[in-house]
Amino acid sequence: MENTKALDAVPQLSQEKVLRIMRMVKNKELSIDEALDLAEREKWIEEKARIEQEFQVDFQDLPKCSQVNFVVYKYNRYRWQKRILQIDFSTKMIFNIEKGSIRKQFPFSQVKSCAYSEGRRFRISFYGRPDYELEAASMEDKNKITHLLSKVIERNACRELGELCSGQPETCDVIHEGLLDVKLEMPSSIQWVKHFVQLRERELRLRCIDQPQTEKASPVAKTISLSSGDAVVSKEDGSGAFSLQTKEAKYLFQIPFTVQNNKLEDISKLQNEWIVLLDRYCSLPEEGSVRKEDVLGAANEVLRDLNEEKVEEYPHLPLRSLAVSAAPPQSCSFVSGSVPLPVIMPDIKIPPPSFKSLNQTPRSTRTKAFYWNVVPQEKIQKSLWTSNNSGKKLLDVARLDDQFLIQDGMGFPVNEPLRTQHIMLNQKVAHNFNIFLKSFCIKPSQLKEKVYIIHEDSGGLSDEQITALRRYQPTAKDKEMYLSFKGPPSELHLVDQFMLEMCKIPNLCQILDILHSARELPVSMADLEPLINQKIQACKQLQDCPRFVAVLEYILAIGNYLNEKAGKEKARGFQLSSLAKLPLFRGKERNFTLLHALVEQIFLHEPDLATFPQELTEFKAVSGASIKGLSAEVEVLRKELESIAECRKQIKSKVAKVGTLESRFYKDLKDLIQKYEKDFSQLSRNCEDMKKAYRVILMKFGEADDQDSEELFGWISTFISEFGRVLAEIIS
After folding, report:
1. Residue 67 region, left (φ>0) first, then alpha (ψ -120 to 50), else beta?
2. Cα gap 536→359, rounded to integer Å
């Protein structure tokens, strides 16, 4: 009976393996404990193979000939500017698009890492370029972006190892691997989620195993860069966890409990292994290496002291000081530590914190400080200030106080300074939020009413206020803490009062997203409409421009004449990129180019053709926007409009009882969506007309199907400008 119960604890394996293990126990080849150990090892091998297979299949599922567009915000000139981040898998490029213009473009091969930051922010690191700190429009977009970029980084790693992109990096690149629980913040709670973790020389790779539970909360895989040299690993006091602090974020890990690792000694030993190795590879220099024996020898020495509880021999010495300052060569093979599959432990409820009542502070009686330039003490003796009578001057202090007294900005009692009064919110977030609230002339009790007003001119929030509130939204942990507060809100600091009100507003995150998108949509459509119309007009002019075509024929005739005499074959046509080469092709005289020859020939034979720029007026001041960029902008607007409509349906269905404020908000929003859909429908039709007209132009001039319009129109615009300059020289 006892044996049967023990065998019931065998992890779920294939029927064949279970029968084999039971047969070995029956034949007394294995004891019960040895059978359990063998089953754990077999299960771990199966799980690891499954993870690697999913890893490889998921990596092969990258889009081959498609592009994905996301709305992001880039911090520039002291404010967040809206951009489109386009990940193009057909050209293997990442584009930064602003109002249809491609501002920056990065090849996939330049992507170094992608790391999480607070809230919706994330950071992309490139080789040889500054980092990009961006903010996604939503957490879902942030997770999608980081997931796709992690695939790009994996592809780069495969190329560096000289393998096919569908392959796995060699195992010698893995220094340590195993299962760890990672603390993640879900939309409604904070959970420990199992990840398969691999430590490599300059990065830590995490792959989520409990994907069904977290597919909406976090990406499947992420890579934490350790190459910057500022990452710090440390134990968390009293929690049994350890943390990795990087420039972008803080990650919490813990060793999962398993059948094998069910003792604190085992957990502590595995934790020490991770801490020592992480600390060692966080402290590596940018370049350099050491011998494998040096790395493993130093690591084993520290681990031996930790496992034997002899850390007290180094009372003030951090782990970082015990690490060697170089990395092992890539060709070394390391023995990867493995951690058996974890057993899901029951959630432990942590009681809410207790709060102390705080007395309100009196109104401020301080005045503004006047920062003048003080005369140095050594200059006083020989100056007029030795006998100054400022102390005898009569002052109307009431008038001075009236003008220069520090005012209470909110019209209700001012809280104590941030540095003295207790605040429940995270200190860093509270500091920034407090700065914003100084210019936020709204009482906490008025916040809910303001949030449910769509238009600013109707008494709603301004665009800047909506953007700031989205940035300081309470997290799941904050909501749990504030909603457990039972005292009067007036006892709290102003920061906590606003946070408490924000926690009480249902679906605040979705409502702020709706307000933000509803304000941006009409502005974006108004910006795009003239740019799209300009491209349509430019294509129409190129479609009907007989004099410009005649000029191109002159260029072809001149080029064929020169090439024929140079012993080359005649061409039947040339690409418009050749127009940029005309001013660079010099004759016997350095000031005489092929463009001068073209103008002379036209003047000699068909002078009317010199007026061809009148057919192409749209190219005199061509905008930097490209058809590729404008199409991406329109696609993103379509997604935003669909998101607003879908979000309205979701939050309305969640609210059991709709009040007057909410009812008016949903009605106004419905009317606004209908208006936006009508405006966008026209914009979308214009965008399709633009793309069709451009395809006709590419066909007419024999250009490649993927030729960028910004380049094409730029060549024509530059040619028109240079033609006019040379024409003016010849006439004068």
Report:
1. beta
2. 67
Burial class (CB in 10 A: 0-12, 13-18, 19+), 371: exposed
In the block, residue with structure tokens 């209908």: 674
Residues 515 and 454: beta-carbon distance below 8 Å? yes
Please, are residues 206 and 224 in contact by the beta-carbon 8 Å criterion?
A: yes
Q: Cα–Cα distance between 247 and 227 in angstroms, integer? A: 11
Q: How far is CA 127 from CA 105, 132, 197, 413, 684, in A?
A: 13, 12, 24, 52, 37
Tokens of 86: 């386009």
Q: Which DSSP symbol is given to 229?
A: S
Q: Is the separation of the CB atoms in 236 and 252 below 8 Å?
A: yes
335-367 tens-digit pLDDT: 333 333 333 334 444 444 444 444 444 455 677
Distances (CA, A) of 78 to 84, 428, 431, 469: 19, 19, 18, 17
CATH architecture classification, 377-381+395-505: Up-down Bundle (1.20)
Which tokens sit at 573? 């046509």
What are the angstrom distances between the C-alpha of 358 and each of 14, 213, 492?
62, 41, 7
Helix axis angle for 139-160 and 32-60, nearest 10°, is 90
Question: What is the distance between the alpha carbons of residues 565 and 177, in angstroms, rounded to a whole number?
Answer: 69
426's CB contacts (< 8 A; 6+ apart) are none
In the 8-state DSSP scheme, what is residue 91?
A: T
- Show Cβ contacts of residue 345 under 8 Å, excluding neighbours closer than 6 positions: 256, 257
114-155 confidence digits (pLDDT tens): 877 777 888 888 888 888 888 888 888 888 888 888 888 877
Q: Could you tell me which CATH number the domain at 546-614+704-732 has?
A: 1.20.58.2220
Contact in structure between 448 and 501 (CB atoms under 8 Å): yes
Q: Which of 244, 275, 286 is nearest to 116 (CA)?
A: 244
What sign has the CA pseudo-torsion 579, 585, 590, 592?
negative
* Sheet with 93-98, side-by-side order of all strands: 101-107, 93-98, 79-88, 67-76, 129-136, 121-126, 111-116
Fold of the 170-345 domain: PH-domain like (2.30.29)
Taking alpha carbons only, the member of 243, 201, 202, 443 closest to residue 328 is 201
